[in-house]
Design brief:
alpha/beta, six-stranded mixed sheet, 3 domains, Aldehyde Dehydrogenase, Chain A, domain 2, Aldehyde Dehydrogenase, Chain A, domain 1, binds nicotinamide-adenine-dinucleotide
Length: 523
């Protein structure tokens, strides 16, 4: 019987944030589609993990060449969905992925090959140990919209080279960029179903967390991360959580004001401040405070805000209205509590709905939301300090701990202070760029997350360690097996003394008491 009832199919819309133009609508994957994708990934993974590592590396090589050739197309896709300047799409996304592939191509064999585990204790000398790095199976990746290519691609390449299959749930705002990644990998010769994209919002992500994946790599906000950690804990699903940040920048009294102010402006406004490693709090020594602020304001006013597709643009739009409202509310709260707005401080309606002026705030305090909550927008809040100790205390007075930067002409002083700042990465005299160093681990402490991406430690997140121990005397019963008794207890006490007593005499007495343990009768 015909019916008027129409079941609404959940969809996600990919929209250009600079213009509001609808780029494409895509149907969300539901629970059934997600579990079917994960089942297909499991079926494909075995063969993928069994081919020689060199062949997996060859796929990465082909992917790298293809990405280098198609860089303009990929950058345009990224800019269309996020609004960021094409130049940033190239330098902070495509370049990062190309170099991450380079790192894995150069190092995967060394880092994934079996390792021997030499034994130090005399009792275990007759055994040989080996460490195997086995793929988990299917790795689920859930990623955000702010780096829609670099984040999922770098994690995917590490997972794939280690022999895993991957099911990626990209942000609902940047599905098309994820589909570009899928197409690149397919054209690079990756077998079918070894990498799949499931499109959708939070519900699709939740379905992936509850599916039969073997490991989860999540990047996103602390709130979602905590929800996911709870769901993962229920089934002891191992999870890497790359969460939010509120990165401090410490400008010490011997810093170069011109260089540090340029860094602050770039670190706060690149990607319209929507970077987990953005400079979100800036602390400047009181002796430099006014000159630093003056330089920041001048440099901020010189920035060109507009469409990311325009090559002269420095700062593009924000991703959507919800994010913009957070920024607005933080700036309003700060001004109401006494912060001075030295530049920006409002929307740029004439450019489009999602544009917010790069903003410099002075005289902020830790009572203001702008210094406590992640703003994730183009705002540079600046505060003065008097001593290095005070600067470190201010930096550590945060629930977050992703990264931080210290600015000084004295490298040793910077490195010494770095030991006291609570964060996953500290940069001395640079900001943000540690994410682009393929050898460096990326990840936070405190609420900024668990586990690491990138480099050796990122690759190690993609493998299970298996220890294989082989006894070289298969015909010999072990001395510690049954057949206990008073004399065995004495012998073993002697053996403990022989190994661990501090005085030589006691050790020798122990050795004499232990003699004969090898010959004793065992069950
Ligand atoms: P978000 O937490 O809103 O979403 C992240 C992803 O999780 C999206 O794909 C979303 O669809 C999915 N999701 C939402 N609810 C879910 C659920 N219940 N179960 C499973 N998946 C779910 O974050 P966002 O707005 O996309 O990204 C911005 C945040 O990400 C910021 O806090 C930023 O600092 C953080 N981030 C962190 C890093 C890092 O490396 N530490 C990098 C980039 C962004």
């Amino acid at each position: 019987m015909a019916t008027d009832l129409q079941i609404a199919v959940p969809k996600v819309s990919s929209v250009n944030p600079a213009t509001g133009e609808l780029l494409r609508e895509l149907v969300c994957a539901g629970e059934l589609e997600v579990s079917a994708a994960v089942a297909r990934a499991h079926a494909a993974q075995r063969a993928w993990s069994e081919i020689a590592l060199q062949k997996r590396v060859a796929v990465l090589h082909d992917f790298q060449s293809m990405l280098q050739q198609k860089k303009s197309q990929i950058c345009e896709a990224i800019t269309s969905e996020t609004g960021k300047p094409v130049t940033e799409a190239l330098t902070t996304e495509v370049l990062v992925v190309l170099d991450s592939a380079r790192f894995l191509i150069e190092n995967a064999y060394r880092l994934l090959r079996d390792e021997s585990v030499p034994h130090g204790n005399i009792v275990t000398k007759l055994k040989s140990g080996r460490l195997l790095h086995e793929p988990y199976g299917v790795v689920g990746i859930i990623s955000p919209w702010n780096y829609p290519f670099a984040i999922p691609a770098t994690e995917t390449l590490a997972a794939l080279v280690a022999g895993n299959a991957v099911v990626l749930k990209p942000s609902e705002f940047t599905s098309l960029t994820a589909l570009e990644l899928e197409s690149l990998l397919r054209n690079a010769g990756l077998p079918e179903d070894v990498f799949q994209v499931v499109v959708g919002g939070g519900a699709t992500g939740a379905a992936l967390v509850h599916s039969q994946i073997d490991k989860l790599v999540f990047t996103g906000s602390v709130a979602t991360g905590k929800r996911i950690a709870g769901a993962a804990a229920e089934r002891l699903l191992p999870a890497v959580l790359e969460l939010g940040g509120k990165d401090p920048m410490l400008v010490l009294d011997d810093a170069d004001v011109d260089v540090a102010s340029s860094a602050a402006v770039w670190g706060a406004f690149m990607n319209a401040g929507q970077t987990c490693l953005s400079v979100e709090r800036c602390y400047v020594h009181r002796s430099l405070y006014n000159s630093f602020l003056k330089a920041c304001v001048e440099k901020t006013r010189a920035l060109h805000v507009g469409s990311g597709l325009d090559p002269v643009t420095d700062v593009g739009p924000m991703i959507h209205e919800r994010q913009l409202r957070i920024v607005e509310s933080h700036v309003e709260d700060a001004s109401a509590r006494g912060a001075r707005v030295l530049a920006g401080g409002s929307r740029l309606q004439q450019l489009g709905a999602n544009f917010y002026a790069p903003t410099v705030l002075a005289d902020v305090t830790h009572e203001m939301r702008i210094m406590r909550e992640e703003t994730f927008g183009p705002v540079l809040p600046v505060m003065a300090f008097d001593t290095d100790e005070q600067a470190v205390n201010l930096a550590n007075d945060s629930e977050y701990g992703l990264a931080a930067s210290i600015w000084t002409r004295n490298q040793q002083r910077g490195e010494r202070l770095a030991r006291y700042v609570q964060a996953g990465a500290i940069m001395v005299n640079d900001v943000v760029s540690c994410y682009g160093i393929s050898e460096a681990p990326h990840g936070g402490v405190k609420s900024s997350g668990l586990g690491r991406a990138h480099g050796r430690f990122g690759l190690e997140e993609m493998v299970r360690l298996k220890y294989v121990d082989t006894d070289r005397m298969p015909g010999m019963k072990k001395v510690w097996w049954y057949g206990y008794g008073a004399s065995f207890a004495r012998q073993m006490e002697g053996f403990v003394d022989f190994q661990f007593a501090r005085s030589l005499a006691e050790r020798l007495r122990g050795a004499l008491r232990a003699a004969g343990v090898v010959l004793r009768k065992r069950l």
